[in-house]
Amino acid sequence: MYHEIIKGKTVMFTTTLTPTEKPFTSVNWNVNFSTPIIFVTNSENTIGPEYEGRITFFPSTASLELRSLTLNDTGEYFVNIVQDGTFLNGRTTLVIYGEQMSKSNNLIAFVLFKQVYVKLTCKKIVCNYYSEVTTSDRVQLTDGGSSLTIITVTRSDQGPFRCSVSNPVSIGTSDPVNLSISYGPENINLILSPPQGYFAVGSDISLTCSVGSRLPAQFKWFLNGDQLPDTGSELRLMNVQMSQSGNYSCQAFNSKTLRSQTSQPSAITVLGKCNLLVLAKMEIKGFLHTVLMFVK
Q1: What is the Cα–Cα distance from 42 to 44, expressed in whole angstroms?
Q2: For residue 127, what are the β-bridge partners?
């Protein structure tokens, strides 16, 4: 017999012997003929050091439960029973695989002198409200559909994913698993409000930095290349003065992707209140010029 189980789970080796109150003369469980699991004789149990705290022996049927399976538990399992001068024995193969998206219980019927085959397989992997995953150049299903590999992950691959597992008598579905896919920052855009380049002294100005990013981006602000103390996606300039004129830009940073992106500068010019006078039109070197004067 051949059985496949996920590591961390529990396997039950169940014999077909009729339960009895009379103790067996001896019961010997071992793996690969060399590693003792438990030896029972005269109602005394000798347990192998690797199995302390991980097994339960059922004396009425000589069945055995093995818990907290590890990859090292893969192997050939043997049981030898002596009962009233009769020798009974059985064997099976157990293969332990790594973690999978499954919450189904694993129960193996270990039968003496009778072949029973129970295999849990990942029947299909589904995602996004149970639409079945289909293979492509990026998506691969291997190991009979039990392993899903996505190459060159995109933000649309976040899931949720579920694994449907079945055996001949039941079907179980795992809890949903979502992929946390980080990207950006990208497509940064600096928006000036009001949308004009010239402002009078005392105006209120708002600059907003928008960007595509997951995790949410962290922001820095710059004036003429010098970093400002302000943070956040919005910079508010209240009651602006002429000294605040210059080129403003924002920079977005993603702490997960370790990428940053800086916006194109937005020029802001703050002017004092003034009256515009046309003083004269004059001809200079054959060209007609208009001379303007700003008077506060």
Answers
A1: 5
A2: 131, 161
Phi, psi of 144 (to 5 degrees): 70, 20
Round to whole Å and give the CA distance between 130 and 44. 53
Cis link prior to 36 (omega < 30° from 0)?
Answer: no
Mean pLDDT (10-residue bins), the chain, 296 residues: 66 86 91 92 88 93 90 89 87 71 33 27 46 74 76 76 69 75 91 91 95 94 95 95 95 93 95 56 54 49
13, 108 Cβ separation under 8 angstroms: yes
With CA atoms as reference, report the closest residue to 199 among 148, 238, 159, 232.
Answer: 238
SS3 71: helix
User: What domains lie within the chain, and their CATH numbers?
Assistant: 2-97 (2.60.40.10), 122-173 (no CATH), 183-271 (2.60.40.10)
Report the amino acid identity of residue 176.
P
